[in-house]
C-alpha cells in the first residue's frame, strides 16, 4: 500500500510504501477509493490536537471497497462499498457509552488521529464503526458526507427547529447542511470570510436567503447559528445575531480562544453549546437522509500524493465546497483553475 504519513507535528506529510495491513478480529480491510480532506486533518497535522499517535496516516472521510474480512466479521461482503468516519472505536463500558453518548466515550479511538486513516490506498477499520453506502452516488462525491456531513447533521439537530439559521464559515460542512436545512424549510443566512464574494455567491446559489461577511449583521435576528469556522471571535458575533432564547452551536473540534464579551450578549436565555464527535446513530440517520434527499457536494479533487497541497489550499480557502484525495490521479472530470491566492485547483464538477 501507499500512504501519506505525518511523522512530526507541523511537518509536511511524507509519501511511504508499506505492506498492505492485515485486518484483525472484528475488522475490515478497505481499498480506498476517495478520502475527504477535513479541517480536522489540519488541526491534526498542525499539532493543534493533543497526543496524536505518531506516525499517523490522516484522513477520516473514507469511501472504499471491502477487500478482506477479519475474524468474526459478518454482515459485510468482499467488494461492498463502505464509509469510514472519524469515530473508530468506543469502549462500550464507560458511563457515556452506556447512556447512549458514545461520542463522549472515555477511551475512544479516532480514524486518522489515533488509528491510521484514509490518506492511503488501504485502511483497516472496525466493522462496527463502518457503514454500508449502497450503490447510488459517486465515490468522490460521497466522501465529505463522512465527517462534514455527519458533524454538520449533529450540529443542525443541536441547533433546534428554528426557521432562521445562520451558518458561519461556508465550507464543506455548511454547503452540505444548507441543503438539508433548505429541504426542512429553513431560511439560511450564510456568513463567509469578509469580502469573499465568490463564497457568498456560492451560498446564494445553494438557496441561502442571505449571504454576507462574518463581520456583518444579518437583516433580522436568527433563531440559531452554527459556527463551522474555528474562530473564537465569532462566538460573540453570533450571539449578537441570535434572538432571545436562541443558541450558538460551535461545531469544530478546535477553535481559537473566545474573547471576553459582555454578559448582555448571553442574557435573555441565549446559549452557547459545543458539538463533540459523532455517534453511530448520527451516521445512520444522516446517511439515509442525505441519500434520500440527493445531497450534492461540490468537490475539488487532488491525487493522493498532493495531500500537502490539498491541506494548504484548504487552509488558504482556495476552493468552495470540499476537497477529496483520490489514490489515482485523473479521477473524475477535472478543470485546471487558479484561485485568488495563486493556488492551482482541480475542480471536479460534483455539484
UniProtKB/TrEMBL annotation:
GO cellular component terms attached to this protein's record:
cytoplasm
CDD domains from the xrefs?
Answer: CAD2
Q: What keywords sit in the KW lines?
A: Metal-binding, Oxidoreductase, Zinc
Q: Enumerate the GO terms in the molecular function aspect.
A: alcohol dehydrogenase (NAD+) activity; zinc ion binding
Q: Does the keyword Metal-binding apply?
A: yes
User: Which top EC class applies here?
Assistant: oxidoreductase
SMART domains, A to Z: PKS_ER (SM00829)
List, for all copies, the residue spans of the domain called Enoyl reductase (ER): 10-325
Cofactor or coenzyme needed:
Zn(2+)
Q: Which Pfam families match?
A: ADH_N
**Annotated InterPro entries:** ADH-like_N, ADH_Zn_CS, ADH_Zn_typ-2, ER, GroES-like_sf, NAD(P)-bd_dom_sf
PANTHER family attached here? ALCOHOL DEHYDROGENASE 1-RELATED, VACUOLAR PROTEIN SORTING-ASSOCIATED PROTEIN 11
Which family does the record assign?
Belongs to the zinc-containing alcohol dehydrogenase family.
Official protein name in the record = alcohol dehydrogenase
Q: Which organism is it from?
A: Granulibacter bethesdensis
